Known about the structure:
By secondary structure, the chain is α+β, with helices and mostly antiparallel strands. 31% of the residues are buried. The protein is 47% helix and 13% strand. α8 (168-192) runs antiparallel to α17 (550-574). The protein has 21 helices and 20 strands. It has a five-stranded antiparallel sheet. Strands 9-3-16-19-20 form a five-stranded antiparallel sheet. A three-stranded antiparallel sheet has the order 1-5-4, with no helix packed on it. β10 and β11 (318-320) form a beta hairpin. It is elongated and about 125 Å long.
Amino acid sequence: MTERAPSPPALEPTSRRWALLAGASCLLPLLLQLPLQIALTIAGAGIGVGVLSWRKPLPALLRLVMVLALVGTVLVLTRFAIGRDTGCALLAAMFALKPSETYTLRDARSLIGFALFGPFATFLLDQGPLSLILGLAAALFALATLQRLAEVEARPEPGRAVEPALSPWQRLSAIGRLVGIGLPLALAVFWLFPRLGSPLWGVPERALARPGLSDKMAPGEMVDLMNDETVTLRARFRGATPPTSQMYWRGPVLWNFDGRQWTQPRWFRGLPPAPVRSSRVLWDYDLEVEATDDRQFVALDLPRAAPPNSRLSLDHGIYAEQTLTSLTRWHLQSSPPVNYEPELRETMRRAALALPEGYNPRTLALAQRWRRELGSNDAAIVERAMTMIHREFAYTLTTPLLGRHSVDEFLFDQKAGFCEHFSSSFVVLMRSAGIPARVVTGYAGGYYNRIGDYWLVRRSDAHAWAEVWLQGRGWVRVDPTAAVAPERIYDTLADRAPGASGLFGSIGAVTPLFNLSDWMRRGWNDFVLGFDANRQQRLLQPFGVDRLDSTRLIVLFVLFASVAGLWMIWLSSRGERERDPVLRAWHALGRRYRRLGLEREPHEPALAWAERVGKARPDLAIGLLQLSQHFSDWRYAGGQAGRREARELRNELVRALRVHRPGRTGERR
């Protein structure tokens, strides 16, 4: 009969807790990057599975049902869209169910190996410093757990109480040594391995869109943005800085209105930019744009030209050649226009006057009455509308959902709202009066970070304004919201400063702390995320080397990689310091006899070694034989004395081993 293979060692409770906590630490950074509803669902499932399967394994059928249920829930929450965020959510879901089959040492190792994919998947969704810190902490915790599992497996007595042989400091030191072995080579690869100007492959798109500007504006969509303090861009001006009242960051321009929402005609993107005559005022600045998973990004109104690797559309929207899946940097120049498209083509005029039939009759009647009263003076109609808004309207984010005739309800009944209502209603009013108009979305204002000397624009700065076309001037920016509440647009109120609102808003140190933390984040973006092929080639500019070509980079990489390899070999060959003081002193004794050519062989017992030395050097026989006997008694026959007495015997043996010094022939020490 064939013998059955021995079953894997069971996982005792303490080690299982270690494995589950290590897995949870690896899952945490990934959950923080998933949508809240999906993250809470997966976290709840993981906790539930861990509790239910703690004492005994779950039935296979139940595990199958749980897998199908959780995977189905994730797919429903992602609307069955396929993308890298959906893939990461499914990975997290699979890992949340893994504790239901973790009962042996092999299972625990499998769990940790699978869990380490969590921090790696996190970097597909976010490359910020917090994700890196949590990922590194999780990886170190996983290494510590693997080290503990190895100690447990190495114990000769299965029934023996399982206590860690290493103190926390010793365990941390051992892991730090492992990290120190590979860190120099990793740094050499990051800084010196030649980078390509463009990637060989792309990152899959997200299935769920990031919050931010889009090519449409539907009722209530901008409210979520205006309550989101997430940073969308940072701008540093190289010279003059525009006043905040001129900080309009131009984004999607919306032309089409169906009675409820505004949209952007996609075919306009392929048309050349409209002619514009810029003023002498020039704003020269650098933009650091956070990932948007879109190609369009904003620029200060009005950009003079598109930066490299991007293009301008008809209405001066800027579109990158590649989807902005990570942080990007752009150098731009903008100027206020003197006239912008002074001659409006008939196709564009019809698009800028189009209105759906059967909507907003009171607005149409008001506009026609103004036209009869003011004649062909379009500027006077614009002025009258702005005066009415300034006198009769109020700003608020708390508004009821408007009905079919949304513009009528806003202009004649509600008379309170935010930029979405003001810009949409104003453009409809202008079109009803026969004045070409369109909605422009983007951001307005900004927050100045004094520590970093740059401007910060957040999603809460999202804004919508109008542009009207006037004879001889072309497109002119008109902001009806600013006529009601300019302080809500340009960040001139103290409570609009980052961190000034909320639970800790009354603490004066919150805003400086925010400035410091965002400045550090910007440094991370510049030092790590922004380290591309161009930055790498200029790495040694401070040392007088203007540019590093590929050949020089390869030479430097080989040089530093060789040094790192030698460091790895040296550090690995040193071995770990023996923790037991008796064994440490015994091995040191063997090294002292090596100088005489009488060192102990690795397989040689202590007494046999002493007898061999005694035959070669009778003058050393008695002393070494006594030490070897004491060492053998301590090593293999211990446990008879009490703890205090055993400690005294151990210390005495260590002292005796340390003072024994074999001399040359005829010399005794």
